[in-house]
Amino acid sequence: MRTKSGLVAVMAVIALTLAGCANTTPTEEPAGSPGAGVDVEVDQAAADLLPADIADAGKLVIGIDPNYAPNEYKDDAGNPIGWAVELTNAMAAKLGVTTDYRPSGFDKIIPSITGGSYDVGMSSFTDNEEREKVVDFVNYYEAGIQWAQQIGKSVDPANACGLTVSVQATTYEETEELPAKSEECVAAGKEPINILKFETQDEATNALALGRSDAMSADSPITQYAVSQVDDKIELAGEAFDVAPYGMAVDKGSPLAEALQAALQSLVDDGTYQQILDEWGVADGGIDEITINAATAG
């Protein structure tokens, strides 16, 4: 059994690895610099769709939980970085405004949008019907769920009864996927899944790497990145499944949704979107058409 001090030391090493460092990220430009790492010109048609108060302010106030590498996380100086941050910066540049990131707990972002504190929530939100009841989503990517296991283990995400699975709290995996799987286990007379939830994704990954959990569940780009960073301890457990759209959240009925949609579509059309996804190695989830509220559309 590890001593407490030994456990903390190992967790600190893994956490530093997962946090990313200067020579392993495609861009180190400050997150507040629109279009960091790419050359972006203003799309006036998209900019004209901005609500007057945002256009006058000259910035988008964005709620973000930067603990979900490689989508959104922090560099050594504490600035939000990641492919989704770079995409958001480029989107803002298309609109002729800057980005003002406000780090927050994941579960506090949507209430802060509806309360008027943030203009946008950009934190790998899965667009689903329940969330669409309170906010609108501008869909920019598709991601599946993917599990990881300790190297050499054999975990089947479709047959996980009785296992302990680590996960970041308030994500789709914690609120939807794992509870549903656990209920199926109980209904079949089997042991439920022990859902081991953590405030950040780094902690959920640490738990698996240290053997505190049997498996980890997260969005596919996050799981793949975590495995690449701790590949001497964990590996993928099967393919991605249950693909669903990511969305940037805005207040329900806000015309800001159409402005963001137009700016992101402009990035798709001029190739910038693909350039960013290729640069970060996440092109598999790229889409050709930016939509709004894909979970309930059509």
Overview of the molecule:
The strands form two sheets. Strands 1, 4, 5, 6, 7, 8, 9, 10, 11 and 12 form a ten-stranded mixed β-sheet that branches. It contains eleven helices and twelve strands. It is of the alpha/beta class. 37% of the residues lie in helices and 23% in strands. The protein folds into two domains: 6-143 and 244-292, Periplasmic binding protein-like II (D-Maltodextrin-Binding Protein, domain 2), CATH 3.40.190.10; 144-242, Periplasmic binding protein-like II (D-Maltodextrin-Binding Protein, domain 2, 3-Layer(aba) Sandwich), CATH 3.40.190.
List the helices and strands and how they pair.
Elements (H helix, E strand, L loop, with lengths): L3 H15 L25 H4 L4 H6 L1 E6 L8 E2 L5 E2 L1 H13 L2 E6 L2 H9 L5 E7 L2 H4 L2 E16 L13 E5 L3 H16 L6 E5 L2 H9 L5 E5 H10 L4 E3 L4 E11 L4 H14 L2 H9 L10 E2 L6
Helix pairs in contact: 1-8, 4-10, 4-11
Q: Count up the domains.
A: 2
Mean pLDDT: 88
**Rg over CA atoms:** 19 Å
According to DSSP, the number of beta strands is 12
CATH superfamily of the largest domain: Periplasmic binding protein-like II
CATH class of the largest domain: Alpha Beta
Order of helices and strands: HHHEEEHEHEHEEHEHEHEEHHE
How large is the count of helical segments? 11
CATH topology value of the largest domain: D-Maltodextrin-Binding Protein, domain 2
Helix percentage range: 25-40%
The oligomeric state is: single chain
Q: From the 3D coordinates, which CATH architecture of the largest domain would you assign?
A: 3-Layer(aba) Sandwich
Instruction: Classify the beta-strand content into a percent band.
Output: 15-25%
**Poorly predicted segments:** 1-35
Largest β sheet strand count, sense and barrel closure:
10 strands, mixed
Structural class: alpha/beta
Q: How would the global form be characterised?
A: globular
- The CA-CA distance between the termini, in Å, is 54 Å
